[in-house]
Every structure is written in structure tokens, then in C-alpha cells.
Amino acid sequence: MRFHRPKFCFWLFIFITLLSCFTVMFIFISDTRIAYDHPLTKTYMKMEMEKIIEHMTRLYELKDGEIQEIIEHFGPILKTIVKTLNITVPEDIESLMVAYKSAGMVSAPMSHFDLFTFLPHLWSHEDFLKPFILHSRGRNEVSIVFGIPTVRRQKRNYLIQTLISFVKNMNQTEQDDSLIVVMIAEVDLEYTRQLSEEIKNRLSDAVNSGLLEIIAPSPGYYPDLKNLRLTLGDSEDRVRWRSKQNLDFALLMMYCQPKGSFYVQLEDDLIARPQYQSLMKQTALQRIADEQEWFILDFGGLGFIGKMIRSSDLPWLIQFIIMFYNDKPGDWLLEGLVQTKACHLGRSRKSCKNAKDGIWVKHNESFFQHMGTWSSLAGKIQLLKANNFYNKSI
Ligand SMILES: *[C@@H]1O[C@H](CO)[C@@H](O)[C@H](O)[C@H]1NC(C)=O
Ligand SMILES: *[C@@H]1O[C@H](CO)[C@@H](O)[C@H](O)[C@H]1NC(C)=O
Ligand SMILES: *[C@@H]1O[C@H](CO)[C@@H](O)[C@H](O)[C@H]1NC(C)=O
């Protein structure tokens, strides 16, 4: 009997190894979202799993109902991968993954943000935080969610061309791993329906596959925009325009936050370079793998374009925008948040800049280029162009 033991162990070892291989293969075949065609190293995959776990932990802490769905959907697969990759998972999440389900979770999306202090008109109307969903296939658990706010313009509207560029410059793998959310930030139902129909007609494949979603704010979401404080010496029109824009950004981010690992905000008048999705994702995962700190990865340059942030960090930005929506334009608030996070007030301006650059990491190349000349603020002309777009002739 004694002689047989090592042999038995050996075969058991072979059996377990084969079983693991088959399990991993099975996962790769059965779940295309995790099965990237490109040679994703184990490290990358591990980093990505850690992101998902972190995201789930956060949702769990927030008692977000979404986590139940995720676990029901991915529970068994996640459990196997976590085991295979030997990742440590918080005990709470682990027991959830075993049970696949948990009772008693509050399922009230977005109610975990403390917005009511700053937007008191929402106090007894939490429903106003839920946008109208004009089209959704319920896609979630993607790597990158792209948020695109759009408003009615007096001059040209470039939205459709922009969306075509975003979709065309992703291949199938990238499309399957992304979600594009267009928010038509208008309360005129006739207009939002019309534009939504146009998007559905012009981009039917992206809409039908679930890659593209369309939402619009509930009219009750906005406070009285005629009654804002005039700030920074700006005209009333300008204050209203930038304050509403801040509220639009915050709502879009709130909607997108639970749907993927990373969030990237874009605008409605851009063209994208090919492979932007996988390049962004690789850059983020590489930084995480190298344990380099970052808060924003910047693939765009101007304004809010192409700023990538972890979904788990997004609540900070959302709260910050909501707190100061009436005080400054969104891109200044982003500066302010990063400055607050990074800078030592007793040190020089230069050391502040270095500290900021450390967590707001600018990519050497802009992945997006402006198409439009007309800003969404009536009469404002937008002539800024990214000078490091990969194709200089555009
Ligand atoms: C899409 O592009 C990525 C990155 O370049 C590549 O790894 C992947 O194989 C491509 N997928 C398809 C279906 O062509
Ligand atoms: C799993 O990781 C832990 C530390 O993270 C390590 O101590 C342990 O040996 C690993 N197990 C296997 C089977 O690799
Ligand atoms: C950015 O850096 C990468 C390599 O790090 C290089 O291949 C690429 O050409 C650079 N792009 C620009 C616009 O400098």
C-alpha cells in the first residue's frame, strides 16, 4: 500500500492538472468576454480579475442590487477563475460566489450617492435620478464603458458621424468588450425620441448587438436652471450652460458606473483612431500590473475627452461634480479634484504639477480628434484640435 501512495499522488496531480486545463479552456470557449483573441498574458488576466473583484467588493459594500445579478451570471465562472489564478477574494464576496445569490440586498441603483444635500429638489424623488432608457440590451460587465453626452445644437450635429467612427474603429473583440452609452441631454421628449430613432436606423448593428445604449435624463432631475448663482463673472447663459453640462456628466457617469471596469468620457463631435479600445485597455492593465498609481489615464487632451477612470473611483468624481456644479466648468472641477488629491499646499507650484502628473497620466498620443467647429454653447466656436492625433492630416 505504501508503495502505491506516491504513484496515486502522481496520477491525482496529473488528473487535477488536466482538469484545470480543461476548465480554463472551457471558460475561454464558453465566455467570449473573457476569451480575448489576442495573447493576453496570465498577468493581464489576473489583473483584470482583480479589477472585477474590486468592483464587486465595492458594489457589495454599497449594497448595490447589481452585484446580485453579476454573481448570478458570473458566479460559477468567476469562482473557477479565481481558484485557477490563486487570487485572494474578500470572504464576503467568496461566500456570495458560493451561494450565487444573497438575500436582503437593497436594489436601488444610484441611491448610494449622497446627492440630496447638493440637489435638495431630489430629496423625495429618487426616481428622477433614473434616466429614461430609450434603448438598452442590458449589457454590463464589460471592460470599458464609453459615455457620450450630447445636446441639441443650433448649427451642425456631428453625433451620427461620431458614433459611426467609434464603432467602425473597434473590431469584433473590442466591440464585445465595450458599451457605448449616448445620453441625449434634452428634456424635449419629441426630440429625444426622434434622435434616438435616427441613431437606431443609422447604427442598427451596434444598437441590436447591445453595444450602443441611448438614455435621456428625466426632466425632474434638473434643479431650476433659471435660478442659479452667477459665478466666475460669467453671463447667465454661460453659467446655465456649464452648470447643466456638469449635471449631465454626473448623471451619465452614475448610469455607467456599475456596467464595467473602466469609464471613458467622450464628446459628440469626434473621430477615433483604430484599435483605441484595446490600446486603452492594455495601457490601463499594464499600469495596474506594474503597480503604478493613477487616477486618470488621459487619451484625449482637451476637456473631458478620452479621460479614463476606474469605475470604482468614479463616485469621487461624481460627488465632486455635483457639489460644485454651479461653481465651475467640469474640466476645471476635474483639475480641482486631482489637485486636492495630489498636492501639498506648502510646496511649490512645480511640485504640485509633478504630483498631479503622477496620477493624471497623459498618453503620448491623442486617440481622438475634434470634428466640429461649433460648440454646444450657442455661438461659441471650438477651434482647438489635438496636435498629437495619430493621423496628422485630420
Ligand atoms: C481586434 O484587435 C485586437 C487588438 O489589436 C486583436 O488582438 C484581436 O485579435 C482583434 N480581433 C479580431 C476579431 O480581429
Ligand atoms: C497562492 O498565493 C499565496 C499567496 O498569495 C501563496 O502563499 C500560495 O502558495 C499560492 N498557492 C498556489 C497553489 O500557488
Ligand atoms: C507614443 O509612444 C509609442 C511607444 O511608447 C510609440 O510607438 C508612438 O509612436 C508614440 N506616439 C507619438 C504620437 O509620439
Automatic annotation (TrEMBL):
Q: Which GO terms describe its cellular component?
A: endoplasmic reticulum; endoplasmic reticulum-Golgi intermediate compartment; Golgi stack
Where would you find the membrane-spanning parts of this chain? 9-29
One GO biological process term: protein N-linked glycosylation
For the keyword Transcription regulation, the answer is: no
In the record, which residues are listed under signal peptide? Answer: none
Q: Which residues form the MGAT4 conserved region domain?
A: 115-389
The UniProt keywords, alphabetically, are:
Membrane, Transmembrane, Transmembrane helix
Supply the PANTHER family for this chain: ALPHA-1,3-MANNOSYL-GLYCOPROTEIN 4-BETA-N-ACETYLGLUCOSAMINYLTRANSFERASE A, ISOFORM A (PTHR12062:SF9), N-ACETYLGLUCOSAMINYLTRANSFERASE VI (PTHR12062)
Query: Mind telling me what this protein is named?
Result: MGAT4 conserved region domain-containing protein
Q: Which organism is it from?
A: Aphis gossypii
